[in-house]
Structures are given as structure tokens and as C-alpha cells.
Amino acid sequence: MNTTPALIELRQVSRQFQAHAGRWHFRRAASETAAVYAVREVNLALRAGEVLGLVGESGSGKTTLARLMAGSLAPSSGERLWLGADTCTLRGAAQRDARLAVQLVHQDAQSALNPRLTVETSIGEASVVHGLIAPESRRTRVADLLAQVGLDPGLGSRYPGELSGGQRSRVIMARALAVHPQVLIADEPTASLDVSIQAQVVNLLLDLRRRHRLSLVLVSHDLALVRLLADRIAVMYQGRIVEVGGPDVLIGQAHHPYTRTLVEAAFGTHAGTAGQVEVLSAATSALGTPSEATGRLTGCSLHMRCPWAGPQCKIIEPLLREVAPGQLSACHRDSMV
Amino acid sequence: MNTPALAVSDLRIGIRRDGAPTIDAVEGVSFTVAAGQVLAIVGESGSGKSLTALALPGLHQPPVTIRSGSIRLEGVELLGLAPAALRRLRGSRIAIVLQDPMTALNPVQRVQTHLIETIRAHRPMGYEEARERSRLALARAGVPEPARRLQSWPHELSGGLRQRVVIAMALVNDPAVIVADEATTALDVTVQGEILREVRRLARDSGTAFVWITHDLGVVERIADTVCVMYAGQVVEQGPAGAVLAQPAHPYTRALLDCVPARQRAGTRLNQIAGAPPSAGQWPSGCRFAARCPMVRDDCTRTPSTLSVLEGTDMPRSVRCLHPLTP
Q1: How many domains does the structure of chain B reveal?
Q2: Which of A198, A202, A266 sits opposite B262 (nearest CB)?
Q3: Residue B223 domain flag
């Protein structure tokens, strides 16, 4: 086995948020407010140099997990390790280095940029604050970063409102690169971009990864896109990771029913003849609509929607286990009698 | 019975700015949709597809104006129609479904209020009868437990259910045409797939004609009979969806198809189209795609390209390219 520790490792990480109904929540006792688990008991490691894809539907906890991995959100329970060391125990320079080494590229480039700061300030500020560059050299450093993401260095004096969507995406990538990270966590980097621009941004991400030897976490709802880029894909459903595997295995021999649904939704019409599509579609509708992530904690979170659900699915929560070399799945299916 | 549900010819939409000459944002758009057919209009942002969508039921607002052309709904010319007459058609013969279902629903009205109001705005009908009709519309739009959902508030519904309610509102009066502008873009892929299936079924069973506006070629592939590809305010290619997607004749259609992740092989860079589309008012003089076209030739930048019938195909197809790709 590989003995070098993973760059980032999450161990039994959960994150819950308090859901309070309406504005009178402060009158209620703590026991009455429902806790919504956005992420539940996740074990996941990012290995050096890999591209890890994270897919799931909206509300599955992708963004929360991305923020937990980036360290910008503290887990409610469980621990986050950086190079094998619990990040809670790090102090001083070690803590700062661990934080700078992982940079989050936010989902919506529009709201991730302060509209009142110029591009140059947005990109260069963190480097100056952390003493990575002298304030005088900010302009040249930012010009260099802008060139690296394929933008005209002259854009430094502009404000975000003057840029197109594709340009803003490039700016937030330049900002993340400014502090010499080892890991980029890109949360839906292409959402809200046109198809032709989407490909440009993804290619840029891949070029940067190669040039700076970055490891990459790619969060997306688009399985077809993630399949092209990722070395490993983790599928999330209602806060849990339900399947992990290489892209070919996951698309070709998905084990978990939910992964199959996603594969069918993404590739249904490319699967071949019309007859096949019809069969796959029927399986999709059998799954119905997802329920809220609150409440019931027993059993498999998919059992209400799953056409293959058996009696034990309602009682015992399936854990991730190896179903094939390099493929983990949280489903009781083949262990059923 | 040969009148198409919707026939648009040579539609030209302009944007008027104070003190500036009117800019043509959309020009020369022509298409017909027969009952029970689904026409998809595909394009990227700025291509003029949403302006076209809003103009069809006459919902465009100043500074957007229709400068010329014709929109015929079941043979009736909509351009130049008095506002009151247009209002009688809107919601009864032609309906629209917009991208964001939350803003299309009134947050302080129950689902049934939306539907009953839509019915009774167009014909006198008793409350109970209208309510029953609303329940049937919800069922046709694929809403589970329609009787219970009539009582729901919009915030109680998931995004997919909300969009189904909006679709139910659109079809409650059995319109001839439903225009949908990016109606599934905000939804998850699995939910999107289900709604697209319902739309196909509605077109087949009720004979409703759909104009489906999208940027997603995967959606086109799933639901459309015919397709119009728009770029920079013009239709660059149109024809039967299957033929156009299988053998695109315009380099832009080809490039757009090559960008779709589901059609690409893993391991390499994604195919991309270099540069960005021009914006309205800054149209180049020659072919509008010339600056980004991988197959550009000298005459492309000088001669404006016109939409002409593609020779050598058995189905009616047209393409706006001086040097169309040959199958």
C-alpha cells in the first residue's frame, strides 16, 4: 500500500445546520429546532496529484463537503487531516501554510468577487497580507497571474461588473493561484457559463493543474463533465457518499442504484437505441422525488425511492464497502438473501 | 386543418436605446410548428433566443420592439393585434413557461388559486368545476397526488414540482402552443429527464405544439422534432433535429456539439470554441461566426452569409454558411 499520507483526509466528518422555522425560532427550545445534516459521516481522502470528482444533485451536500475539505467550514464532528496531521492541532506558521495550501474556487464567480474592489486588489490582497510578496510588486505579480489564466494583464484595473462571466471565472482562479496552493477545490466551476465557454474554463483548470502540479477536487452536478476529468469520482446523496470509483467503472458498472440513475440521466440518450432509452427511463421514474434531508435516520436514505429495496434497507444503514477493486458502494443489494 | 399551430416568418427584433440608433438583436427568424410537434431553439447567451421566446406571446417590453415580420398563431396574425385581443389569446391559446418557477408563482397564493384564476380569466366557469379541471391539469403535468397539491403553497414544493405546477398552468386551458424558455435549466438532471418525458407525452397526447428554448443540446436530442440553431441574432441552421444533430452542416453547430461533455472521450482536453460571441450592435460585416470558425476562409469575413436551403438532403434543411460542411 501507499504509505505517503493523503493531502486532505476527512474521517467520519459530519456537518449539521440548525433549521429554524420562521423568525420566532429564538422562542423555541433547542430540542424543537430540527438539525439538518448537510454532510454525514464522510470518509474521504484526496491523494497527491489526483483529480477527485464530487457529483450529486442539488441539496446532496456537495458544496458543504467542498467547504469542509477546504477547511473553510469546521466539521460538527469528525476530523480533517492535512498531510496526516489533524488541522485543529496546527498552530502558527504550520496552520497558516496548511490553510493557504488548499484554495477554494467558489461556485458563483459573480458573488465571489467584491464588486467594489478592482481585479488587481482582489487577486493580490491575500499575497500581500500573508507576506508572500512585497506590496510594491503586487502589480507585476497580478499581471503575471492574469496572463496565466489567459486574460489581458490590463484587466487589473477593472471592476468585476465590467467583466463577462467567463472572465470572472478566470479571475477567481487567478485569485486562488496567487497564494501558491497545492490543492484547488473548484465548486461548480462551469455552472452558469455557456457551453463553448465552459470548455475553455475546464481546459484552463487542467492546464493550471499540470503547470503547478496541483491536486484538484472538482465539484459538479454534471457527471458527463466530471467523467472526462476525474481520476476518481465520489457520488453524494443526502449528505452521504454512496459510491466511489474510477470514472470508467462508475459509468460502465455502477453498483449503487443512485449512481445508475445519475448515469442514465447524463448519458441516457447516448446509450444507443431508442429501446434502451425507454428501459432506462422507466428505472429513473421509479425512484420518484427525493425527500427532505431531515428526520429519519435509520436505514438507507434511498430506500423510499429505490426499486430494488428489500426489508433490511429500511432498518440497517448500508456502509461503504469494496464491491470491486477500487470501487466502494454503500448498498445492501448483493449481500441480500 | 393545414394551418400550423405557430408560423413565424422573417421576425426582426430591435433594441432601442436613448439617443442611439435601434440595434437589431434578432433578424430573419422564420419557422413553423405543427400541432403535436416540438421545435427547439438552441443558442448561447446573447444569441437572441430568449428575446424570440418573449416576443412570441407578445411579452417583450420596451426598449425591445418587433421591427418587422409576422407571428401567426393558428392563422391569426399577432403583430399589430390590440392589447386586449392579445391578452385573450395569451394564457388560452399560447402560454409561456419561464426558467425560474419560484418567480412565476405567487408566494402568497395556493397552487389552486393560480390554476383556477388562469381558467376563469378566459371563460366563465364555476369554482368547483374549475378546481376539478385544475386537478386534472396537475395530473397531466405529472404532479403526484394532485388533489393534495392543489392546497399547497409554492414554498412547500421542490423545484421540480414547482416547474410542473407552472407547466400545469400553461396547459390548463389547452393552448395550441406552449413556449418554454430554459424551463428545465435550473433543475437537477434526473428531474429534468422526467419533465422532458412528460412534455413529449403531452405533445403526443394533447396535440400541443411546443417551442422549447434551451442552450443544452442534450435537451434538444431528447425532445425536439425540429431545431433552430441561433448564433449572434441569426438562425444559422435549421431542420429536423435528428438530421441536424447527426450531421451538422454549419461549423457552429458542429463546434457546439463537440463541446458537449457526454459526447467526448476521457483523458484529453475538452473541445472548445475559442473566443466569445459578438454582442448585439457589434455584429461583424461578414459571417458572424467567422472570427471563431475553425474552417474560416477569406470570403467569409467579407460576404454576409444568407440562410439558404441545403441541397442534397431529403428533408428540408437550411444553413447560413458560405461553405457548409458536407455530410
Answers
A1: 1
A2: A266
A3: yes
User: Is residue B160 assigned to a domain?
Assistant: no
Interface test with A, best of B153, B163, B259 (most A CBs within 10 A): B259
> Does residue B152 lie in a domain region?
no
CA A140 to chain centre: 32
The distance of Cα A25 from the centroid of its chain, to the nearest Å, equals 31
Q: Tell me the shortest Cα–Cα distance from A59 to chain B, in angstroms.
A: 10
Domain with B276, as residue range(s), is 6-93+175-320
| Nearest Cβ partner for B266 among A227, A264, A266 | A227
Query: What φ, ψ does residue B102 adopt, rounded to 5°?
Result: -70, -40
Q: Is A205 on the interface with B (CB under 8 A)?
A: no
For the entire predicted model, the pTM comes to 0.82
Per the rule left: phi > 0, alpha: psi between -120 and 50, beta: everything else, A61 is: left
All residues of chain B having their beta carbon less than 8 Å from the beta carbon of residue A203 are: 269-270, 272
The mean pLDDT value for A229-252 works out to: 91
In this structure, the dihedral spanned by the alpha carbons of residues A35, A36, A42 and A46, taken in order and rounded to 10 degrees, is -120
Q: Is A310 on the interface with B (CB under 8 A)?
A: no
pLDDT (tens digit, 9 = 90+) per residue, B241-274?
999 999 999 999 999 998 888 777 776 778 888 8
| CATH number of the domain residue B261 falls in | 3.40.50.300
Is residue B179 scored above 90 in pLDDT? Answer: yes
A83-136 pLDDT, tens digit per residue, is: 989 998 999 899 999 999 999 998 888 889 999 999 999 999 999 999 999 999
Q: How many CB atoms are closer than 10 A to CB B272?
A: 19
Q: Complex ipTM, two decimals?
A: 0.74
Mean pLDDT calculated for residue range B71-85: 93
Does residue B169 belong to any structural domain of this protein? no
Measured CA to CA, the distance from residue A56 to residue A63 in angstroms comes to: 10
B144 phi/psi in degrees, rounded to 5? -70, 150
- B262: which chain A residues are within 8 Å (Cβ-Cβ)? 224, 266-267, 270
Question: Per-residue pLDDT tens for B8-42?
Answer: 999 999 988 777 788 889 998 999 999 999 999 99
